[in-house]
Amino acid sequence: MLYNFLYPLADQYSFFNLFQYITFRTVYALVTSLVICWVMGPWFIRWLEKQQSNGQPIRNDGPQTHLKKQGTPTMGGLLILFALTVTTLLWADLTNGFIWLALLVTLGFGLVGWLDDYLKIMRNNPKGLAGRWKLLLQVLFGSIAAVGLVMMTEPVVDIPFFNTQWNMGWYYGLFVLFVLVGASNAVNLTDGLDGLAVAPTFMVASALAVVVYLAGNIKFSAYLMIPFVPGAGELAIFCGALVGGCLGFLWFNSYPAQVFMGDVGALALGGALGFVACAVHQQLLLGIAGGLFVLETVSVIVQVASFKLTGKRVFRMAPIHHHYELKGWPEPKVIVRFWIISILLALVALSTLKIR
C-alpha cells in the first residue's frame, strides 16, 4: 500500500524513490512484522489464556516431559498470520497478483487449521476437524492457487544442480497442488516441540526470499540460469513479512514456550512456503531447503508403513523428533540440533543457484 500511494510521489519528493526497491521494502516488512508480534504478543497470549481453559491437549503416550506443558495456550499462529497479512498489505505492491494469491493460500490453509484447533480447544472435541474434511479444504484452497499459478506462469519445474527445466504440461497444476498440501502438512508434523517448526520456517523463507528476488529480475535469473518469472520479485516482501512474524513469534514460542502455534499457524506457514516455491518453479529446491520437514514427514510414513506391514516400529515414536526425545536427548538439544540442520540445508539450497 505504501508503494502504491507513495512511490508515485517520487517526482516531487525524491525520498519516496526508496519505495521502488524491493530490497528496501523487504527489510522493513521484516522489521514491521517482527515489531507487531513483539508488541501484541503479551496481550495476545493473555487473551488466549482467558479463552482456553485447558490449553493445548498433551498426548499421554508421548514423552513424559511434555505433560508439564498442559495448560499452555495454543492457536498462537493467529499472531503470525495477523502480522504477516498487515505487513504484506502495507509494504507490497497491491497490484501484483502473486501477492494476493500468496495471502489467499496462507489464510485459506490457516482457516483449515483454525477450524481444527477451534474444535479441539474451544469445543472439547479431541478429534478436531475430521481428516477427510481437513484434506478436502486444503485441496480446495490449493486448487485455487494452482489454477492461478498455471495461468500466470509456465508449467515447468526447475531442476537444482542442472541447467534444465522439466515441462510438466497439464500435470503441472496437480504437482503444484501436491506441493502445497504436502508442505502444509509437513510443517504441521514438525510442530511438536517448542520452536521446532517456526525457526526452520523462517530459515526456509529467508532462502526463498533470495530466490524470488533473483527469479523476478531478468538479468540475475539469466545469469544464474533459473526461470525468469515477471513480478515474482514482489514475493520477497511477503517472505520478509513471514520471516519477521516467525522471529517475533519465536520470542514467545522458544523453550519453554509461553504459547503454541497450533494447526492454524503450522498449516498456514507450510502452505505459504509451498506457494512461494511454486511461484518461481523451485519446488525441488524447497525440498532441499525444507529437508527437515521432509525428514519429519518421511519418518511418519515409514513408521506407519512398517507397523502395518510387519507389526514393528522403526522409531521409538514418530515424528522423528520424539524418537530422539525418547532416546534421552533433552528437548532443547533436539530443537537446536534440528535448527542447525535447517540452516545447513537452507545454505545448500542457495548454493544450487550457482552450482549448475
Structure in words:
The protein is mainly alpha-helical and 356 residues long. Helices cover 66% and strands 2% of the residues. It is built from 14 helices and two strands. Strands 1-2 form a two-stranded antiparallel sheet. Helix 2 runs antiparallel to helix 3 (77-91) and helix 6 packs antiparallel against helix 10. The longest helix is centred in the N-terminal third of the chain and has 30 residues, at 22-51.
Describe the structure concisely.
Helix content is 66%, strand content 2%.
What is the distance, rounded to the nearest whole angstrom, between the alpha carbons of the first and last residues?
38 Å
Rg, rounded, reads: 20 Å
User: Spans of 5+ residues with little confidence (pLDDT < 50)?
Assistant: none
User: What is the chain-wise order of helices and strands?
Assistant: HHHHHEEHHHHHHHHH
Number of strands: 2
Shape: globular
Structural class: mainly alpha
Task: Give the percentage of residues in beta strands.
Answer: under 5%
**Can you give the helix content as a percent range?**
55-70%
Largest sheet: 2 strands, antiparallel
Which strand order do you get reading across the main beta sheet? 1-2
Number of domains: 1
Number of helices: 14
Mean pLDDT figure: 93
